[in-house]
């Protein structure tokens, strides 16, 4: 039964639907992986064996009658702590449990619930989702499974999400992405991360960081799994086969990849640019066209990141309105970041909002000449935990971790990261693809073509040292 966990999500769902596999047996294999690896990896802050066994049992009962409530029925799913999930407390990465109102399920989670997906547990996240490195000094910082010698971070703020996939306890992970919080942990752990377009998926039932930039997203083990899960979850689809039929006609010969924006390629750690470039060269040899097409708005987006954009101000306002008693217990690192923007004048906040809107309009025009814009997902090697303990070191590396991914959020784009190799430190490297807002289908189609050419994470990277049985 262990081998079924390694199969594509589509094949696992088909095995469940046909009766060749059962939801309880699948969950048992996932639970076994969790028991063996959780002490080392630390992906979860909440796990409830008895409750999730009941969920799997309900899925099996429906399957036994020949019924189907959705493509993700019986599939183990991990959920970032910022989502409300019935039966689990919500902390949003903080030390104090949030009021019961934040345990209510929004459309993303309730949609999975209606399909009888098995919501196995809540993954560790950065406090209030405010950070790209993945630190949580209270719940513990999940360990990156790719370094068996040194304790390296897994990326944030959805820091336990990618780790849960390699642990084997989940086949799909929910995250949120405000400046890269899905794609950074996906890139740093060698998994696939999809940031949806702002407004495509509801933010109801999710503890907010930024009302301007927050987006829900998913992490999966492959792009093929991301296509399946996206179609199963997206209100416009609901059936993966329909999206797969649409993508079947897309070929690399029709894909134009823009890579000419220098602000996204400069100052990367050793082996990152070379690994991404090699992957793109493989795509070109298979028929894709690569062009030195710039996205100059990216540099403006990075400047906004460094100035604080609107995130600090909006997080500060949320705390003041909803959780004022939580301030005193926050990690000093998070407190420092919030205070950076909490004191800015209203005029400056509104000017930044206007700047973001103008950049989004300008950026959309850039995609008339290209299908996607590509760049390294994260320009740095995942730091060792000891390298980010001091505030000044954390600030520098955190900004670098967010530098490339923030561009898609500020410019109103959807974005995907897929693993394409290892850097010189032996850590995963992600290739980021960005497409216009609302073009998730095209984005996933290009990612799927690249994955077929390059291979999945298991095929191209192997298995992380801390996940080898």
Structure description:
This protein is of the alpha/beta class and 469 residues long. It contains 17 helices and eleven strands. An eleven-stranded mixed β-sheet has the order 1-3-2-4-6-5-10-11-9-7-8, sandwiched between helices. Strand 10 and strand 11 form a beta hairpin. Helix 5 packs parallel to helix 6. The longest helix is centred in the last third of the chain and has 20 residues. The two termini are 15 Å apart. The mean pLDDT is 96.
**Spatial strand arrangement across the major sheet:** 1-3-2-4-6-5-10-11-9-7-8
Low-confidence stretches: none
Radius of gyration: 20 Å
Number of helices: 17
Distance N to C terminus: 15 Å
Order of helices and strands: HHEHEHEHEHEEHHEHEHHHHEHHEEHH
Beta-strand residue fraction: 5-15%
Helix content: 40-55%
Biggest β-sheet description:
11 strands, mixed
The gross shape turns out to be globular
**Class by alpha and beta content:** alpha/beta
The count of strands amounts to 11
Mean pLDDT: 96
């Amino acid at each position: 039964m262990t081998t079924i966990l390694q199969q594509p999500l589509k094949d696992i769902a088909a095995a469940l639907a046909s009766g060749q596999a059962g939801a309880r047996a699948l969950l048992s294999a996932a639970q076994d992986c969790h028991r063996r690896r959780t002490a080392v990896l630390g992906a979860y802050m909440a796990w409830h064996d008895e409750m999730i066994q009941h969920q799997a049992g309900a899925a099996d009962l429906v399957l036994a009658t020949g019924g189907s409530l959705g493509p993700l029925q019986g599939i183990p799913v991990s959920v970032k702590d910022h989502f409300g999930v019935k039966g689990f407390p919500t902390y949003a990465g903080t030390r104090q449990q949030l009021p019961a109102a934040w345990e209510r399920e929004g459309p993303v989670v309730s949609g999975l619930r209606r399909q009888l997906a098995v919501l196995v547990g809540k993954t560790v996240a950065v406090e209030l989702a405010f950070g790209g490195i993945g630190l949580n000094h209270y719940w513990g910082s999940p360990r990156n499974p790719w370094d068996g010698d040194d304790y390296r971070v897994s990326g944030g703020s959805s820091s336990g999400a990618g780790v849960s996939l390699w642990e084997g306890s989940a086949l799909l992970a929910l995250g949120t992405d405000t400046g890269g919080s899905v794609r950074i942990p996906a890139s740093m752990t060698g998994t696939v991360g999809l940031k949806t377009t702002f407004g495509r998926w509801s933010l109801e039932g999710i503890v907010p960081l930024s009302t301007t930039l927050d987006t829900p997203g998913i992490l999966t083990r492959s792009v093929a799994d991301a296509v399946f899960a996206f179609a199963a979850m997206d209100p416009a689809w609901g059936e993966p086969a329909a999206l797969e039929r649409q993508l079947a006609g897309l070929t690399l010969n029709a894909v134009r990849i823009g890579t000419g924006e220098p602000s996204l390629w400069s100052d990367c750690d050793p082996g990152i640019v070379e690994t991404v470039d090699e992957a793109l060269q493989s795509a070109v040899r298979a028929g894709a066209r690569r062009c030195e097409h710039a996205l100059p708005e990216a540099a403006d987006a990075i400047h906004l990141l460094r100035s604080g954009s609107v995130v600090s101000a909006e997080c500060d306002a949320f705390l003041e309105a909803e959780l004022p008693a939580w301030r005193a217990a926050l990690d000093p690192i998070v407190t420092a970041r919030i205070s950076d923007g909490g004191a800015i004048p209203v005029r400056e906040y509104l000017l930044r909002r206007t700047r973001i809107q103008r950049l989004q309009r300008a950026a959309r025009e850039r995609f008339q000449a290209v299908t996607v814009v590509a760049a390294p997902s994260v320009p740095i090697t995942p730091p060792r935990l000891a390298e980010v303990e001091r505030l000044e070191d954390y600030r520098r590396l955190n900004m670098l971790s967010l530098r490339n991914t923030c561009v898609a959020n500020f410019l109103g784009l959807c974005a995907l990261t897929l693993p394409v190799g290892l850097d010189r430190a032996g850590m995963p490297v992600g290739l980021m693809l960005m497409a216009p807002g609302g073009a998730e289908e095209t984005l996933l189609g290009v990612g799927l073509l690249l994955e077929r050419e390059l291979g999945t994470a298991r095929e191209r990277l192997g298995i992380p040292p801390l996940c080898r049985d």
